[in-house]
Please model this.
Amino acid sequence: MSCSFDLDHYRELLENARKGGYRFAPFDGHAPEQGELFLRHDVDLSLPAALEMAALEADLGARATYLLMTESVFYNLASPEGVSALARLREFGHAVGHHPVYPNVVLDERFDRIVAWHNPDPAVMSEPVVGAVNAYAEPYFSPERYRSDSNQRWRSGCPHEELRAGAFPWLQLLVHPAIWVYPGATMGETMRAMLDSERERRLQQLAADNIDLS
Ligand SMILES: [Zn+2]
Ligand SMILES: [Zn+2]
Model:
């Protein structure tokens, strides 16, 4: 099994979690139990990538928690595209929380009461958040029960073997959709592939906005 950042290996990760006996669990305030997998997606860059990953998960019967930004420079959650992406994520059966830029948490009716800071300062990231669960705080955050794929680098290795073996009592797994959905052998290539696909989408948006592209 090769640990490439693509949807084939992502599917293998989820299938391995099943084989290891893991259950997909929500960040709803309950204390983590043996065999629970808290699958979290920080949507930093691309709503289309989030929707593609969400569809694959729904296909496999996996439930995840998508954390969306209200201050992203890459997408606008208040736009028609943003509103419909949020609705689609819920239709797929996923939880949807907020991915705020410190300290601007939004707890309006769009979001379940779950947050994790975007690019947090370690000094404040685990502080309690009034009115919401903080994924970077107790009881969901513990360094040995946490894996993250940031920048296509697993700091403690890709967890596919450990998931299959049931080696974690429970695990919070952070996966960023865009770095799996777009092709590329490196993070740089993957980001450039994302920008190529954005270009097509932007042209469609310009046409929809009555911009003359002739
Ligand atoms: Zn792997
Ligand atoms: Zn982020």
